[in-house]
Specification:
The chain is an alpha+beta fold and 101 residues long. Helices cover 50% and strands 17% of the residues. The chain has a 4-stranded antiparallel sheet with strand order 1-2-4-3, covered by helices on one side. Strand 1 (36-39) and strand 2 form a beta hairpin. It starts with a helix and ends with a helix.
Length: 101
């Protein structure tokens, strides 16, 4: 597996660059949403907090957006986690989140 990655490094390098670009773009757009607090990330996901994570999670699911509910962790009360996807998936997430109140 390590040999495969090394043999195809240019492909993986471009995928990583796209994930980083998408994460930065999504994070910047999330900063404008007053109903959440998003946290900067160096991973392929963004953690964000809302007043009612269950309500937000259900709202997103209703729009066909699946994210991770991490709010059961005592240190992550009312937090959700969105993994970066394709640009159109990330835009669908942002559109749905923008209509959450």
């Amino acid at each position: 597996t390590a040999h495969f990655v090394l043999d195809h490094f240019s492909h993986f390098d471009s995928v990583v660059a796209e994930v980083i670009s998408e994460r930065e773009s999504v994070f910047q757009q999330m900063q404008s949403f007053s109903q959440i607090q998003s946290y900067s990330s160096a991973a392929n996901f963004i953690l964000f907090k809302t007043k009612n994570s269950k309500k937000c999670f259900d709202h997103l699911v209703q729009d066909g957006i699946l994210i991770r509910d991490v709010s059961s962790n005592p240190r992550l009360k009312n937090c959700l986690r969105v993994s970066m996807g394709a640009p159109e998936e990330n835009q669908a997430f942002l559109k749905s989140l923008s209509t959450f109140s």
